[in-house]
Amino acid sequence: MKATNPVLDAERAEMAVRSFIAAQLSCDQGAMAELLAPDYLDVSPLGRVDNRQDVIHFYNEASCGNSTPGAIVPEAELGDARAMVVDEHVVLVTKLTLTMQGANGRRKSSMRATYVLDSGNGNWRIRLAQLTPILE
């Protein structure tokens, strides 16, 4: 299946990534399951490789802290996105900045995030994510 509109495909793939990040932050395992391909792999900023099941299992209410009254949910911002469309695949490279509550207040952490998505089933699904810390 060839890309019919590379610009539109790139935009839809980026929307899927934004939805995935929102699902991570809100611990929405159902949304994550819909957005991740069955053979999904995740390379963490520390170099750990996890599969789809491990990633979805990690994002539960207890690990996210959303079950604690008054907990501050991290915020995420995507920027500097660049996309490459090849057939039914999109490679999206972006800057992902997370703002989290730390012991000394809120802090920001930025990573270069690379996502590989495909539309083989008619919807954009993420097959691979690799996060590389940006040392600032």
General description of the model:
With 136 residues, this protein is of the alpha+beta class. The chain has a single domain (6-133), classed as Nuclear Transport Factor 2, Chain: A (Roll). Helices cover 29% and strands 44% of the residues. The chain has four helices and six strands; from the N terminus they run ααββααββββ. It has a six-stranded mixed sheet. α1 (6-26) runs antiparallel to α2. The protein is globular and about 50 Å long. The model has no long low-confidence stretch (mean pLDDT 87). It holds the Pfam family DUF4440.
Secondary-structure topology with pairs:
Blueprint: H1 6-26, H2 29-35, E1 36-43, E2 49-51, H3 52-58, H4 61-64, E3 75-86, E4 89-102, E5 105-118, E6 125-133
Parallel strand pairs: 1-6
Antiparallel strand pairs: 1-2, 3-4, 4-5, 5-6
Helix pairs in contact: 1-2
- Helical proportion? 25-40%
Identify the CATH architecture. Roll
Main sheet characteristics: 6 strands, mixed
Under CATH, the topology can be stated as Nuclear Transport Factor 2, Chain: A
Which range does the strand content fall in?
35-45%
Q: Calculate the mean pLDDT score and round it.
A: 87
Low-confidence stretches: none
**Structural domain tally:** 1
